[in-house]
Amino acid sequence: MGDAFSALGVSVPLLLAQFVNFAVLLVILRLTLYKPVLRMLDDRKRRIAEGLNAAEIARQEAAAAQANIQAQIEAARKEGLDIVANAQAVAARIETEAREQAARERQAALEKARNEIQLERDRAISELRREFATLTVAAAERVINQSLDPQAHQRIIEETLAESRFSGN
């Protein structure tokens, strides 16, 4: 076999020396470089796994926060609807009270107007009686050409008015 290696241009002692050198280099690299590189790769793998776990936890927390926010928004919406409903109820109550107050005021104004009309009517009748009495006295004085006793005259006027249609009936 030595002739076959020499025919190919390969030196067996040189080949054995290269195998020994390669084995020594492999042992040295394994002791000095391979273990630190594996340790570094394991650390990197561990950090990536931790990062993925942290990302999953963050995703779950974000989902929980989103659900919490959605619940708060829904609660705020419900509270807003309650506030609007209460405001509408208050507005309806205020409107009803205002209408009732306006009706009371209108009724009071109507009653006051009726009283004022009655007072004016009474004043007008009283004034008309005085005028009628004055005219009657003046007419009687002209007819009789003399003045009557004012007390007797007043009594006659009151009796006449009580019998007439100006008695307030």
Please give a quick description of this structure:
With 169 residues, this protein is mainly α. It is 91% helix and 0% strand.
Terminus-to-terminus distance: 164 Å
**What number of structural domains do the residues give?**
1
Regarding quaternary structure, what we see is single chain
Number of helices: 3
Largest sheet: none
Helix and strand layout, with pairings?
Layout: H1 2-8, H2 12-144, H3 150-163
Helix pairs in contact: 2-3
Account of the protein in words:
By secondary structure, the chain is mainly α. It has one domain (2-163). Helix content is 91%, strand content 0%. The chain is built from three helices and no strands. It has helices at residues 2-8, 12-144, 150-163. Helix 2 (12-144) crosses helix 3 (150-163).
Defining key terms:
mainly alpha; 169 residues
